[in-house]
Write a structure and sequence with these properties.
There is one protein chain. The protein has two domains: about 140 residues, Rossmann fold (3-Layer(aba) Sandwich), CATH 3.40.50; about 160 residues, Dihydrodipicolinate Reductase, domain 2, CATH 3.30.360.10. Helices cover about 40% and strands about 20% of the residues. Strands 12-11-7-10-9-8-15 form a seven-stranded mixed sheet. Strands 3-2-1-4-5-6 form a six-stranded parallel sheet, sandwiched between helices. A two-stranded antiparallel sheet has the order 13-14. A hairpin with a 4-residue loop joins strand 9 and strand 10. The protein is globular. The protein binds nicotinamide-adenine-dinucleotide and 1,2,3,4,5,6-hexahydroxy-cyclohexane. 1,2,3,4,5,6-hexahydroxy-cyclohexane (INS) binds next to helix 7.
Length: about 325
C-alpha cells in the first residue's frame, strides 16, 4: 500500500464533519478524497474544506478507485449495510458506533469479516483512546485499587436529537458504556437491568445495573436531556481505593458568583483528544491494509448487551446476555 491513505467519508453531519476536519488537520499521511451525504449542500461544504470531491452515492464512494479506506458516520441504521459493502470491496473501515442497530445485523458483519479471513473493521468506540479512560485502565491494571468491585458511570448530553426513543438511548448512547466497562475490566457482561423514573413519554434518564461474569457490578446513568451540557464520568471502586476520570480543563473560572470549570457543550469538544488518537491509530492500521482497536466482534458484543438492555427497559426485568462463541479471528494478538 502507498504512503498516503485516501479516505472517503459517508455522512458529514456533526461527527463526520469533525472526523474530516481531524483527518485533514491532525492525521498525517491521510487525505480526504471523497465525501457523501444525503444532504448534498452539506457534502459540498465539507468536501470543499477538505479539498475532496462529492461522491454520487455511498456505494460509489466505497468502490471508488480514489478511496483506499472509508469512515462511516451516517445514521446508525445505515451502518451495517455500509460496512458489509466495505468488506466486499476489501477496504478498511472505521464505522461509527453502533456497528448495527440489531445484534443479528452486527453478527452478519462479523461473519462477513471472518469469511474474508482478516480484520478490516474498526468500530468508533473512541473512549478506548481517550487519555482519561486509558489512564484509568492502567491504574486498574497496576493493582492500585486492589480488587475492583463496582464501576459507576454517568453519561449526559445537553439535549437529545430528533426521533430519540427509549431504545435508541440504549443502542445509541448507553452503548458506549456497554463497550467501555468490559474493556476497562477485561471482563464480560452477563446480565442487565434498565429502569427509568419517567413512565410516560421518553424514558430519560435511564439507570442500568450491569452484572459482569466476575461478579463486579456496574451502574450507568444515561440522561440525554440533562440541559446543562455534555458530561461523562466514570469511577471504579476497589477493595484498596477508588479512581475516577477527572475533568481535563486548563482553566478554573471564578465569575458571576460561581467558582468552577466549564462543562463541554457536546461530544466534539469533550472527546476531541480521543477522536484524534482514534483516527491516528485507525489510519496507521488502514495504511498497513488492516484494522486495530475495537473490532466488529466488540461491536457485536455491545449490540447483544444493548438488545438485552432494551428488552429489560420494556419488561422491567433482568435480562441475560448470550452472545455466540467468539470466532478465532478475534483472539488476542490475531490481526
Ligand atoms: N463516537 C461518538 O462519540 C459519536 C458522536 C456522535 C455521533 N456518533 C455517531 O455518528 C453517526 C452520525 O451522528 P451525528 O451526530 O453526526 O448525526 P448528524 O445527524 O449530525 O449527521 C448525520 C449525517 O448523515 C447524513 N445522512 C442521513 N442519511 C444518510 C444516508 N443514508 N447516507 C449518507 N448520509 C446520510 C445526514 O444528512 C447528516 O449530515 C451516528 O451513527 C452516531 O451514533 C458517534
Ligand atoms: O451519537 C452520540 C454519541 O455517541 C455521543 O458520544 C453520545 O454521548 C450521545 O449520547 C450519542 O447520541
Amino acid at each position: 500500500m502507498s504512503a498516503e491513505l485516501r479516505v472517503g467519508v459517508v455522512g458529514v453531519g456533526a461527527m463526520g464533519a469533525d472526523h474530516v476536519r481531524t483527518l485533514s488537520e491532525a492525521v498525517p499521511s491521510t487525505r480526504v478524497t471523497e465525501v457523501f451525504d444525503r444532504d448534498t449542500d452539506r457534502a459540498k461544504q465539507v468536501a470543499e474544506l477538505a479539498g475532496g470531491r462529492v461522491a454520487e452515492s455511498a456505494e460509489g464512494l466505497v468502490h471508488s478507485a480514489d478511496v483506499d479506506a472509508v469512515v462511516v458516520a451516517s445514521p446508525d441504521s445505515t451502518h451495517a449495510a455500509l460496512v458489509l459493502a466495505c468488506l466486499a470491496a476489501g477496504k478498511p473501515v472505521l464505522c461509527e458506533k453502533p456497528l448495527a442497530v440489531t445484534a443479528d445485523d452486527a453478527l452478519r458483519v462479523v461473519e462477513a469479516e471472518v469469511a474474508g479471513g482478516r480484520r478490516l473493521v474498526q468500530v468508533g468506540f473512541m473512549r478506548r483512546y481517550d487519555p482519561g479512560y486509558a489512564r484509568l485502565k492502567r491504574t486498574l491494571r497496576a493493582g492500585l485499587l486492589g480488587e475492583p468491585r463496582m464501576v459507576h458511570n454517568v453519561h449526559r448530553n445537553a439535549a437529545s436529537g430528533p426521533g430519540s426513543t427509549g431504545a435508541s438511548i440504549v443502542t445509541g448512547s448507553m452503548i458506549h458504556e456497554l463497550d467501555t466497562v468490559p474493556w476497562l475490566l477485561d471482563d464480560r457482561i452477563v446480565g442487565i437491568r434498565v429502569t427509568s423514573p419517567v413512565a410516560d413519554g421518553l424514558p430519560d434518564p435511564q439507570l442500568a445495573v450491569i452484572e459482569m461474569a466476575s461478579g463486579i457490578l456496574a451502574t450507568v446513568e444515561v440522561f440525554v436531556n440533562a440541559a446543562y451540557g455534555y458530561d461523562v464520568r466514570c469511577e471504579v471502586v476497589g477493595t484498596a481505593g477508588t479512581a475516577s476520570l477527572a475533568p481535563a480543563v486548563p482553566v478554573s473560572l471564578r465569575s458571576a458568583g460561581t467558582d468552577g470549570v466549564e462543562v463541554s457543550s457536546d461530544f466534539v469538544a469533550h472527546f476531541a483528544d480521543a477522536y484524534r488518537v482514534e483516527l491516528l491509530a485507525w489510519s496507521r492500521a488502514a495504511l498497513a491494509g488492516g484494522a486495530e482497536g475495537p473490532s466488529a466482534w466488540d461491536g457485536y458484543l455491545a449490540n447483544v448487551v444493548a438488545e438485552a438492555g432494551v428488552a429489560a427497559l420494556h419488561s422491567g426485568e433482568r435480562h441475560a446476555v448470550s452472545p455466540v462463541d467468539r470466532p478465532s479471528l478475534y483472539d488476542e494478538g490475531v490481526r
